[in-house]
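S.,

As promised, the iron/sulfur cluster run. Input:
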Amino acid sequence: MPTIEIAKNSGFCFGVRRAIDIAKEIAEKNEGTTYVYGQLVHNERVIEDLENQGIVFIEDIKNIPQGATTVLRAHGEPGTTYQVLGEKGITSSTSLKDATCPLVTLVHNVAIKLKNAGYDVAIFGKHDHPESIGTSYHIKGKDTYIIEKPDMDHARAFVEYLKGNNIKRAALVSQTTMSVYGYKKLIDNLNQLTNGTFRNIPLSLTDVSADYGYVDTICNPTKQRQSGTEELARKVDVMVVIGGVHSSNSKELAQKARELGVETHYIQSAAQVEKGWFAGKERIGVSAGASTPDVLIEEVVGKIKEVAL
Ligand code: SF4
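Predicted complex:
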């Protein structure tokens, strides 16, 4: 009979749990409608549950009513969001509750300090991810250089950007949910192209003497989920990774498992589990990103037991 094992540290991180608790608490106390700007966290099931509790999710900031009770998502926001909301009378002293994860705020602060220390700051992240958009605001806005992939072509393009713009001091930060292995690979490639000029800058920024460097801003909960998935993927025959369609950290887990050569299925719900995935398999692994609720993990494991055992 096949075994089913769940990767260590699967499911909610503290930042996601905190954002959900904030939204629920505000909605419970608020007699009117509570609005959340954007996806509070990147998981459809979580959003659905909160919608069922009366919370309204708005993608276009223009549609948030004047003075409305508003919660900001865990991924952080650019300053322009606060300005637009302020013009609607929505501020932290009136009806705004900011659920930005403290570890995202930390990245913003690191980027600001690096910029103040004379660095041209670039991001290892996704162009369209709200966290990178929020961090970019503190650097050069839309002109911030974002490196999406760690391969040699992307590393070379960045080095050419530095040379072409005569940039003598540059530092990288990472979106909190990127691959640890990917960030390392990017730095290795940059160092290969520049004779080892990219040095580690401590997160505390106590030493900013390097002219070219990088700060490790991938958050610990992301690292723990990646190592838990990696450990499990090395010993199973098939992996099922659960995460939202837009969940960067969950998709990284699936990518990691695939890179290790194990058959991997990335799903959003138990309904997507297929019996055929487990034919002839003895060890089944399940992993879930930081925005995946426990109930979803339980449902998927239940469905796997139903079809595979
Ligand atoms: S993944 Fe990291 S940065 Fe994002 S909400 Fe969780 S703890 Fe915060």
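The pocket of iron/sulfur cluster is lined by residues 13-16, 74, 101, 103-104, 176-177, 219, 221-222, 249, 290 (CB under 6 Å). The chain has three domains: 3-11+221-308, 14-101, 103-218.

- D.
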